[in-house]
Amino acid sequence: MSQEPPEARGGERSDARLAVVRRGTDQVEHRVFRDIGAYFEPSDVLVVNNARVVSTLLHGEDQDGRVVAVSFYSPHGDGIWHCLVAPDAVCRPGARFTLGPDGQVTGRLLAEADPGVWRIALDPGDGDTLYQLAEPIYPGYLKQVPADSEYYQTAYGSRPGAVLFPSAGRHFTPALLEELRTGGVAVAEVTLLLAARSHHFVRQLFRQRVAAGGIGDIDAEDRVDRADSIQGIDFPRAERYEVTAQTAETINQRRSRGGRIVVCGTSALRTLETVADEDGQIPAATGFTELRIIPGHRFRACDAFLTNLHRPKSSEMVLTCAFTGREPLLEVYRRELIPREYLFYEFGDSMLIV
User: Fold this and answer.
1) Spatial strand order in the sheet of 239-243
2) Where residue 43 sits, what CATH number does that domain have?
3) pTM exceeding the 0.90 threshold for the entire prediction
């Protein structure tokens, strides 16, 4: 795995390596990401997730003075959000929190939307204010935060609200996207506001605040953490998506003319597969999705798939196996990627499956 992107070493985003995998064969081509245009036809459409990563971690106290930590995401409107909370002991309907660096935010838990996921009313409740007061979430494997916060954004990210990074598209530069458009390729944007997959970050912040002198039972929360850790694959929680009428029209027109839908990243793919009808037509739509794509899924809106390299037993790896077949994909990892020391995760290398 890479601790920093190519730009931090004087290069460009598109300097990452690219493995091109041809489904149904054992062929793998090893290229550099900047060469990706060679695998597009003028009739194709590239679909990307334009979500922009924001800060969502807030800490404070409940009405009894106990430390709380909250990660808010996927807004419902009117100041109501989904959230993850630590510790579990404070989670009950009506619980009230004072949050933020100087207690600027009040929160009230409304109801448990899914196991471990709560709806919370925040005041102020607008994203612009909350994102400024919150702390960011970065992957646990990074030994230090990125030297430049833009490293943890795509070049086209324009819709604030993602907790996690839709990183499959970070290798694209504005110049590379313009090169595709000049060659006739359409670039269509969807939005999926990725949420944290687990309570890891809120529990980590809770422990830090208790260690700094706050009131809280770390041992009790550790027991809850251990119980959660045996649940297995980190499938996504409910995440807000949007597909605009313009995006839907672009995708449908391109496919009707024989073009391929080339999907960038698991988040964009889950969005399209959530809204696509049985014939693969894409409507304009907005809502929340918890779609789990596993082997056996019939893909309706993806002809080629661009993704990063994923760890075993992750939902991203399971989704990619569904697209390629489990054993063919694992054989690519074993025979082609690991021996060549391809880099994994957000700042790593890339794979195009055609």
Assistant:
1) 28-32, 17-21, 350-353, 304-308, 261-264, 45-49, 186-192, 239-243, 285-289
2) 3.40.1780.10
3) yes
